[in-house]
Design goal:
This protein is mainly β. It has helices spanning 12-15, 26-29, and strands at 2-8, 39-44, 55-67, 72-83, 88-101, 112-119, 124-126, 133-138, 142-149. Strands 1, 2, 3, 4, 5, 6, 7, 8 and 9 form a nine-stranded mixed β-sheet that branches.
Length: 160
């Protein structure tokens, strides 16, 4: 797979630049539940592509925090949920723990603010421009994403 682009769109200010935010509201698509107390509902509208089966969307939840030369990450669980009666999928990010960091002695001056991503299983979802990707996260978590593409040409495995 090849990395195409990284886009961050977790705030209301970013929604104004979204390709479909003016044309479609989430409530026009389906009755997705409102975010619970302490949660934020993130919505990703994807542009239409010719062969969407060649693309995937990697969800990258995390937060900006003070870092240094150590490697840092968060741990979290992303669960796919069914929108009852509609057959649509939405996602919930729960059990956010961390940060987890290596314990190297860092030279002075390596401190900086940086985005620290959560690690976990199933953070890659199907590319589908016909439906939004809806992800509920804790309020202190920002959701970023990247779009990946695969080759149209399939290669044969070698039998041994």
């Amino acid at each position: 797979m090849t990395f195409i682009a990284a886009i961050s769109c977790a705030t209301a200010a970013c929604a104004a630049t979204d390709v479909r935010s003016n044309a479609t509201k989430l409530s026009d698509v389906a009755p997705y539940p409102a975010a619970q107390k302490g949660q934020v509902r993130n919505v990703i509208w994807l542009p239409e592509k010719a062969d969407e089966d060649l693309f995937k969307v990697e969800l990258v939840p995390g937060k900006v925090m003070q870092t240094d030369c150590n490697t840092r990450s968060l741990m979290a669980t992303l669960t796919a949920e069914d929108l009852s009666g509609w057959g649509y999928t939405y996602y919930e990010l729960t059990d956010v723990k961390g940060p987890i960091a290596t314990m190297m002695a860092c030279p002075e001056g390596t401190e900086k603010e940086a985005f620290v991503a959560a690690q976990g299983d199933n953070y890659t979802v199907r590319y589908n421009s016909k439906l939004p990707i809806v992800v509920y996260t804790p309020a202190d978590i920002e959701l970023r994403y990247r779009i990946w593409s695969g080759s149209e040409k399939l290669q044969s495995a070698q039998q041994q």
